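Predict the holo structure. Ligand: magnesium ion.
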Amino acid sequence: MSSILRIALQKSGRLSEDSYQLFKECGIRFDYGTGKLKSVSSNFPAEFLFLRDDDIPGYVEDGVADLGIVGENVAVESTHQIETVHRLGFSKCRLSLAIPRGTDWNGIQDLNGKSIATSYPRILGNYLSEQQVSAEIHEISGSVEIAPGIGLAEAICDIVSSGSTLLSNGLKEVETIFRSEAILIARPTLEDEKQSLLNKLLFRIKAVQAAKN
Ligand code: PRP
Ligand code: ZN
Ligand code: MG
């Protein structure tokens, strides 16, 4: 039986369009943006699955997908056993602390005894303990920027790209704790046939990247 690579991409979000463009530039064709959650390439032994980005590390660990494209932020926060195969250089963003715009800021120690809403409790928790700050971490899975406005937390820690979400929610960025970009992840051990397909794919990705530099 000839094997096929199953590749998980973000269904809709910051990584989706750039991920699709990467494969397009690699000459790999598949249906995208049709609402279908699965699409087989017409000219490369690959099948694409469109999923929520946060679920991708788990699917890759479980073998539902062989590869995935996620933000490094999602991969580092996840506890799943996955391997970073290659850095992709797009969808750059940062994970930052932000507080209401009218609030004073004298440094990270200001967060002692405060509560912080985030979808990244592990990355934030590590950062706070490095900085010897003791704050309560309030984990929420989305719309984190609303938290200070509804009295749920005094600060937030979330992904910032253009900064427009912070701006429209009356928040100011005070500290960057992690810088992220899209990465290609895989199961730590792939079967030989899948590994050789991955090698072909990597060869094309590197050629595309080299042409841009
Ligand atoms: C992040 C973050 C904000 C937005 C910030 O979401 O949670 O909602 O991007 O971007 P901006 O600075 O350009 O306004 P993400 O794309 O990670 O999606 P998700 O939280 O739905 O997974
Ligand atoms: Zn997400
Ligand atoms: Mg978000």
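The pocket of zinc ion (ligand 2) is lined by residues 53-54 (CB under 6 Å). The two ends are 39 Å apart (CA to CA).
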